[in-house]
Recover the amino acids of this structure.
């Protein structure tokens, strides 16, 4: 087969996979997001951006994760250091079945906004993708912050049950 044709076919398959992932139906939530815990991380947004984020949250709650991603993408471009927007984006990706994309966004969220809930969120996503080391690291961060919701303890129990 012609090398150029082979290259085009390889790229075409990659694009088809991306399209299929985007069009895949939303699956059930893996865990519930505590939207109110993101208020601090969203506080610095302009009123227009906050309104867009609130609309995206409503879409997520309805299960319209693709539409939520479109809304969140515009806010993320204007606010690349908003950890709250990154968590919401990761959560929408997670509910669409894109765990690796969600993990990448969750890591970015944690790198720009280090608080106990964002660390807990990253720990949960790390657990889902099988990165036990990152999960354990985030459990330590949450414990150091006081673990107000028992997130670290619950995640540790899930890790222990998985190892059995």
């Amino acid at each position: 087969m012609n090398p150029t044709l082979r290259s085009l076919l390889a790229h075409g398959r990659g694009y088809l996979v991306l399209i299929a992932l985007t069009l895949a139906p939303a699956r059930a939530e893996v865990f519930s997001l505590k939207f109110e815990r993101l208020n601090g991380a969203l506080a610095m947004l302009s009123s227009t951006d906050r309104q867009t984020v609130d609309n995206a949250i409503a879409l997520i709650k309805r299960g319209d994760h693709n539409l939520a991603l479109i809304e969140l993408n515009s806010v993320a471009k204007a606010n690349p250091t908003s950890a709250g927007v990154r968590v919401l984006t990761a959560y929408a990706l997670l509910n669409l079945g894109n765990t690796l994309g969600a993990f990448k966004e969750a890591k970015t969220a944690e790198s720009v906004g280090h608080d106990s809930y964002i660390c807990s969120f990253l720990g949960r996503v790390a657990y889902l993708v099988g990165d036990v080391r990152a999960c354990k690291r985030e459990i330590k961060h949450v414990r150091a912050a006081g673990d107000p919701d028992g997130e670290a303890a619950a995640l540790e129990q899930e890790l222990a049950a998985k190892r059995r």
